[in-house]
Design brief:
about 150 residues; alpha+beta
Length: about 150
């Protein structure tokens, strides 16, 4: 999407009183940085634009704790299930779906004109504890990445 289009999408989402739609959609979630090129499948009550904004928001919130940490699909899905009424599912045998790349979604909303923190309906309390868990597990596996002042 072009920057102007992203701004329109952002403004549209910001005006919504309820982010959920009446239709549940299937999303194939992947990540450009995934060396295994693994696809994950999620059922969610959101439009594509709202779902991508939520995925970007989740990653931005995690980055507040550790800027260099990149969330995996599994971690994003855990947050989606716990806080956003989504469900990880098996690959559908048929039907249509939307492809969502976590890296692309993040980059799409990365800009001063689209501060997802302004959207109150996208905010969720309690996600920070999950982010800390992911980051501490990462530091345990890669101690040389641990900063001197560590997440507690």
């Amino acid at each position: 999407m072009v920057n102007q289009t992203i701004k329109k999408v952002f403004e549209s989402i910001k005006k919504k009183k309820n982010l959920q739609s009446k239709t549940t959609r299937i999303f194939k979630l992947n990540h450009a940085a995934d060396e295994n090129e693994t696809d994950y499948w999620v059922s969610a009550p959101y439009t594509l634009e709202v779902f991508e904004a939520i995925c970007a928001h989740i990653q931005f919130e995690c980055e507040k704790i550790e800027m260099s940490y990149g969330m995996s699909q599994d971690e994003v899905i855990e947050i989606l299930e716990k806080f956003y009424e989504c469900e990880k599912i098996e690959r559908p045998k048929s039907g249509s779906y939307f492809n969502v790349d976590l890296n692309y979604s993040r980059e799409m909303f990365c800009g001063s004109n689209t501060n997802l923190e302004e959207i109150k309906t996208i905010q969720r309390e309690g996600m920070e504890e999950y982010f800390k868990k992911y980051i501490l597990e990462f530091y345990d596996m890669h101690p040389n990445w641990r900063p001197k002042e560590t997440v507690k």
